[in-house]
Design a protein that fits this description.
This protein is an alpha/beta fold. The chain has eight helices and eleven strands. The chain binds S-adenosylmethionine.
Length: 241
Amino acid sequence: MFDDVARRYDLTNDVLSLGQDRRWRRVVVDAVDPRPGETVLDLAAGTGTSAEPMADAGVQVVACDLSVGMLDVGKRRRPDLAFVAGDALHLPFADASFDAVVACLVFEHIDAVDEAVAEIARVLEPGGRFCFFLNHPLLQTPGSGWIDDQIVEPPEQYWRIGPYLTEDLTVEEVEKDVFIPFIHRPLSCYVNALAGNGLLIERMEEPSPPPGFLARAEEYEAAATIPRLLLLVTRKTSPKA
Ligand SMILES: C[S@@+](CC[C@H](N)C(=O)[O-])C[C@H]1O[C@@H](n2cnc3c(N)ncnc32)[C@H](O)[C@@H]1O
């Protein structure tokens, strides 16, 4: 299904890809904080837009994705980058191959959270970092959004939060005849999967949407204080029990 959106993914006005706003990409790269010579796995890298600036900074980055269509678009733009086809549930890499792994906006599309987190822990060096970006599981639940209620007196504007505790699969038609599943889960599900695989949370960030993104997504312009993303920076502390 991501093959069907691959060509449009790099477009600057595509909200699905966070608008490819360079500032979003900066947030991702800053979270990984890669040093030259380190090996970094960009898991579910899409077209490689986060991998690109890391490679330019001298990092040995591998961009891995399930969608051959996404990888092909990336390869055409950056033939010098390492693009590898692979499934998050069965990563085609040896144990302890990477100093850091980053996964941005993919767990919403993965059924088996524990298995995918276990794979990430497996390919990380002991002491390695995992940077985990998600659509904010609390504030972006299905049914959440900006409400501008002009019927009540006085009128009210607020951010409504949809059902939180229930795990929920929504299939969105992101363009004509292209359907992508999005899974909502409570935050505890992710935190417990990380903890169960020896990934200790060292930092959490809820970056505010950058102005470039706000200008493209009307609902956010009115709700600039509501984060779209959640970032957890974790460190591998022990092998899986
Ligand atoms: C919303 S895009 C995010 C792409 C990129 N991380 C970014 O920030 O632009 C989700 C990506 O996850 C990939 N994906 C979905 N399920 C996957 C899986 N099981 N293993 C690897 N990649 C997967 C899709 O092919 C798609 O490229």
